[in-house]
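Morning, I've got a small favour to ask if you have a moment. The fold is given in discrete form, as structure tokens running alongside the sequence. I'd be grateful if you could look everything over and explain what you see. No rush at all, and the record is pasted right below.
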Amino acid sequence: MKTMHFFIMVAMAAAFAGCATVAPNELLNARSAYQTASQGPAQQLAPAELHKAHDALNLAEQSFRKEPDSYKTKDLAYVAQRKSEQAGAIGAIAASKARKDSANTDFQTKQSELVLQGKKDLSDSEKRTADAQAENARQAALTSAKDKSDADYRMQQAAIAQGKMDLNDAERRAAGIQAELEKQAAQKQAELDKQVALQAAKDKSDADILKGQQDLRDSEKRTADAYGELAALASLKEEQRGLVLTLSGSILFRSAESNLLPQARVKLDQVAKALLAIRARNLIVEGHTDSQGSDAYNQSLSQRRADAVRDYLVQSGYPADHIQSRGQGEGSPIANNTSAEGRANNRRVEIVIEREK
């Protein structure tokens, strides 16, 4: 692949040297976009898309050599630029997904080890707790027996010394001793119960953390898969305002109309399904037209088309309070309006997926 790039650059340099006409900006942009895509992950992860971009750039270069100043050269260069940008985006998304899959595998392995260690620690803790309870019970029994023996001895000595014993007083003293022993035993049991409760609370907190981490991984995977589906459906490009999904107007509407075509509903069903797999983001649906017709007419037509796409996405389940529509008229062309292909590219609908704040 690197060798092929080298020969391409040599051929391009030769073409520049042999041509006295300065290359148009569209062709310069197409060359730059292809160089950027070929040096990125698309080389390994999206070779088919990169090959398409390469073929498109060759067509533009050939046209430039034959007709340097023609609109055909500029249009072919624009097509090559878009295909290079699309190859770069698909490669970047595939690389991101691969990194996340690898990280998830490592995380799952580490979490399994932590869970096994946690179970072992819990088993050891339960055994220590049981042993402590048994020892406390044994010590309580020995203390009780000793205290009873001491009390009996004292009562016998008092009876010998005094010749008599008040039986009621002896019973009250014995009852007091018994109550004290029971109080101490209750305090020890309360302490053990507290330790068991603390351990149970810790186990529950650990389980909640593991569940939250798993939910986050699942959400990130769904988001990556959804972006991959969107990139496969239409042109997906990262811009300052967010991710921009560009849908060709020719598959959505008839000329000068704002009613969705049957095939447009199929395409929008696929787009809505992918968008709903992502945590709700704010969307802006922008309608664009070519330069044919008056400014006022194109502004109105672009707004109606943007409204039609927005309403269809809302009907498909996307939250209405997270999506708005804007008509941009003919004021934001992406191609030259002097050719049929350029006008077709300008008649488009862009769905802007805003960044999370």
